[in-house]
Amino acid sequence: MRATGFPDFRLGTVLATSFTGTLSERHGHPVERIPTPQRLVDWLAVNGLVVDSCTPAQLDRARELRESIHAAATAAALQDPLPASAVQVINDHSVQGRAAAILTPEGERQWRLGSTSVEDALGVIAADAISIIAGERDGRLALCASPSCRAAFFDTSRSRTRRWCDMNTCGNRQKKARFHARKRQDSVSTE
Predict the structure, then answer these.
(1) Element (H or E) spanning 154, and its range?
(2) How far is the C-alpha of 121 from the C-alpha of 62, rounded, in Å?
(3) Which of 48, 98, 119, 156 is the most buried (most CB within 10 A)?
(4) What does the pLDDT look like over 62-72, one tens digit per residue?
């Protein structure tokens, strides 16, 4: 989804790690994908969490949750102790949100928010983060192999050896870099 003047959302299949992807290239030139309250509303809607509106203060709380999930997921991927402050933020959002899981006629889970507030949507994201960080879902937390990205992602591939948060961006960027390095190497060796 692209709104004029804003970077595209990077959508994944796991809500919590997709949410951390709203800030990408954390170790390069960071790209903020939810720079305004309305962009958070848009991101939530794309992910099935429709809210009426968002204030700047709610956007700040959402970003605090995003960074807490990123910190905890990174620690879990590295098998380091979870940062206590990140755990506290995630837990606080989880208990503050009101939502229920519902079953669709197609046999899929959807979330029904208790209200159309950002807090309820953030509670769903926090609960999703808890389930993946606690190891309750089939998959593993990993970090993107791109040195400028290092995003936490949830690897559900059969072999659990995925290297990139997104093959279309980070993976392709690394492939191109290796290709150009080989071309330079070949041109040096033929001179």
Answers:
(1) strand 152-155
(2) 10
(3) 119
(4) 999 999 999 99
